[in-house]
């Protein structure tokens, strides 16, 4: 059985054990970087506040998948494309904050974010040579500071 079939089976089993119904779709079939999207009517509970339940579900799914595969299974678990939509919102936020930082010549500190969300912000601003980003603080209060470069 290949990785994506194992992951799909494990996510389906997790949903069954939690008494949720959903269709599990593997969207990016690259074996080393897969997107697993669950389409369900129960999205709000599975996602949780700020994606906390989704992060926990992804963690459990990864542990169970890694027990059944020879090499670690790398995948992002998503519910009704929540992460994809959130990433678009964060990229937009990053652009707006960069503009404010550049125009005001002042550092801006964002609210605490998960590691995934911080990564989206860092990547969104990576090629902007007018600002630099830095993560500060300790989990769960870790946040990003966007600073002008000059």
Structural key phrases:
150 residues; alpha+beta; GMP Synthetase, Chain A, domain 3; 2 domains; three-stranded mixed sheet; 5 helices; 6 strands
Output mean pLDDT.
93
Structural class: alpha+beta
Largest sheet: 3 strands, mixed
CATH class of the largest domain: Alpha Beta
SSE topology sketch:
Blueprint: H1 3-17, E1 23-26, E2 34-39, H2 43-47, H3 52-68, E3 75-79, H4 82-104, E4 108-109, H5 115-125, E5 131-136, E6 143-148
Parallel strand pairs: 2-3
Antiparallel strand pairs: 1-2, 4-6, 5-6
Structure description:
Helix content is 47%, strand content 19%. The chain has helices at residues 3-17, 43-47, 52-68, 82-104, 115-125; strands at 23-26, 34-39, 75-79, 108-109, 131-136, 143-148. Helix 4 crosses helix 5. The longest helix has 23 residues, at 82-104.
